[in-house]
Every structure is written in C-alpha cells, then in structure tokens.
Amino acid sequence: MSWIARNIGWILVVCGVATSSMLAMAIAPRFTVGYVFGEQASGAISEVMARTWGAMIFASGLALIYAAFDPSVRVPVLVLAIIGKGTFSTSVLMSGLRRERAFTMALADLVMIALFVWYLAAAR
User: Is 2 helix (H, G, I), strand (E, B) or coil?
Assistant: First the structure.
C-alpha cells in the first residue's frame, strides 16, 4: 500500500477542515471578501454571491471530511474537489492577486489537488 493510500484519511480531514473554514464567507461575506481578496464587496448581488460561494465551499469541505471515513464516496468527492479547487486556483493565478490571501489559498488548493490526484492514481 502506498503512502498516500495509507494516509488519505487524515489528509482528507485536514483538507476538509481547511476548506470548511470558508463558512466565514457565508456568515460574514463583506469581512471575508475584504480579508481574502483585499477588496470590499458591495451591494446585494455581491453579498448573495459571496454567501452562496461560502456555503458551497463549506459543503465541499464537509464532503471531504465525510469521504475520509467512507471510501465508497471518495472518488466522486475528490473529483468534485479537484474541479472546484482547480477553478479557484486558476482564476486567482490568472487575476494578479499575488499579494492577497487568495493567492496563498490558491497555492494551498494546488497542493490539495496534487494530493487528491496522487491518491486517485494510486487507488487505480
């Protein structure tokens, strides 16, 4: 059994907890957008979008934690996480947000993607 297969449980819990921290976006969208992106979200539309985005990311984090304990859902959860994290990372890296916390988050997501792809390749 490979290192990644032996350790995927705790890796998914750690990644899931980190991802779930975006619940803050659903609870306090103005503060979190400013904190993460360095810009203020203004208006009802941006607030609704930020809250929705935060709730969806939170749900993705919960799914990663669940997948740590239920191998039968691991593959679809990891594919979904790779798509979401890949889209976010690509968007941030193409945007020029190099000095904002979003850049660090994008790099962390790329590390998670690498771990998830490694696991999926090893599990075949």
Answer: coil
Q: State the residue range of the domain holding 72.
A: 3-123
Domain count, the chain: 1
Task: Specify the residue for token string 């740590």.
Answer: 68
Q: Which of 89, 92, 91 is nearest to 111 (CA)?
A: 89
Residue 106 CA to chain centroid, in angstroms? 9
Dist. CA 87–CA 3, nearest whole Å = 27
- Residue 96 is classified by DSSP as T
pLDDT digits (tens, 9 = 90+) for 73-111: 999 999 999 999 999 999 999 998 777 899 999 999 999
3-class DSSP assignment, residue 24: helix
Residues 82 and 12: their CA atoms lie apart, in Å, by 13
